[in-house]
Amino acid sequence: xxxxxxxxxxxxxxxxxxxxxxxxxxxxxxxxxxxxxxxxxxxxxxxxxxxxxxxxxxxxxxxxxxxxxxxxxxxxxxxxxxxxxxxxxxxxxxxxxxxxxxxxxxxxxxxxxxxxxxxxxxxxxxxxxxxxxxxxxxxxxxxxxxxxxxxxxxxxxxxxxxxxxxxxxxxxxxxxxxxxxxxxxxxxxxxxxxxxxxxxxxxxxxxxxxxxxxxxxxxxxxxxxxxxxxxxxxxxxxxxxxxxxxxxxxxxxxxxxxxxxxxxxxxxxxxxxxxxxxxxxxxxxxxxxxxxxxxxxxxxxxxxxxxxxxxxxxxxxxxxxxxxxxxxxxxxxxxxxxxxxxxxxxxxxxxxxxxxxxxxxxxxxxxxxxxxxxxxxxxxxxxxxxxxxxxxxxxxxxxxxxxxxxxxxxxxxxxxxxxxxxxxxxxxxxxxxxxxxxxxxxxxxxxxxxxxxxxxxxxxxxxxxxxxxxxxxxxxxxxxxxxxxxxxxxxxxxxxxxxxxxxxxxxxxxxx
Amino acid sequence: xxxxxxxxxxxxxxxxxxxxxxxxxxxxxxxxxxxxxxxxxxxxxxxxxxxxxxxxxxxx
Lengths: 512, 60
Prior knowledge:
- The complex is a heterodimer.
- Chain A is mainly α.
- Helices cover 75% and strands 0% of the residues of chain A.
């Protein structure tokens, strides 16, 4: 076994160790498994939010985009850098507080509590699971490819090992395991990525020298307008690229659940500093490495492997092992969050809501674990037989999630007139318009990104339908009260927390 | 600068700078949120003890 493989083995054991540890310290009820007992501080909240958003896309997709499109690819990074603070500042405190008042344990359940209708969950849950499944599959593929490259073992076996480790610790400790491993992984991936960037810039003689060399290949690669130059620029695609990873995060159920798990609503404030700091250091790096790969590896067969191959070329052996652990960290931290979210949606939002309402906490946790296992098996089967492009699938799944859910999550916390019909129409319009736009190939014809189209359709749908149906479907008084309470800065009155599950009822002030 | 066209430099440094300013403004404007923690602690004296035993990752 080579040095790099040893690093990965140690890393895998450490991650599994965290899973076992959180199993001991974590709560055994649903809130403990699904939200880590709502106990997370700003550092874990921010880095968990960022690492679970970053994913293997940053190492495969970002490098590939940069290798083929040069500095144009940084439009995605420009939006991405602000994604964390935007999400925390707009949704963070309000979603934490409102979810506690309404007694919501999952981000889909939160939507149904805010827009009280079973149809909200019946529409939101399948859309979320569908997109999350495709996204998690890209993480499996990225993990398998990375492991294959480092260890030399065949892709099918590498994929099996990567999935096995991810499922193992997701299975063990639930949200707390995922949050802690995501936190550690965020630090590892930051160190790994910065290390690759430094090694890359040293290899090309510095950033300026590297840019000059890239300019000799094609001067347009140094511009923000793409390899064909300013004449071919598609502003709709640029706007979509910025939107997809900035406001798009606010539509991701597996990211938004971070707000609900915060120790206090005010955690969002400090967490925003961690999030922006992390993003500034981490996000631009894989794009710049991908661009410099044009000089270091000019004849790369598969651009998705640009960052992997550059790391392998420019770093010493021991560093490659650490960096590969960082890459695997990015992949696994997203995959575990996605898997847990899928399991949560299946157990809480579908099984318990529509099939077995009297399900115990223990049964709920096991349904969640069983779902994780089933998705992992299906994901393995698809990823090993017909692996799709990581960048394309990741961006597409992100686009649909953003288009379907951003307006309903934002309006849930901010707009008292947002009602059930408005939310239903918004989710359907966002999903259908973004998927149809992509499937019909209208991106190339119109130069407009499906994210932009989807967000406009879902936002207009929410506003128009909510206003038109205010009389027939008024927002319930207790939801209005909860929203008014969320507007205030202060402790939640005890009367607003009565009637929730046992775990939440335990937080009711005794003398209020 | 850095061997890049001016427009590229302005965009790749300018937009992140806007996000940094946004973050600082958000942190400044939300400084009153601490009052929420104080109010919560006053209402539930036992909550602080309960949390100190179960808090995870409050590194700041």
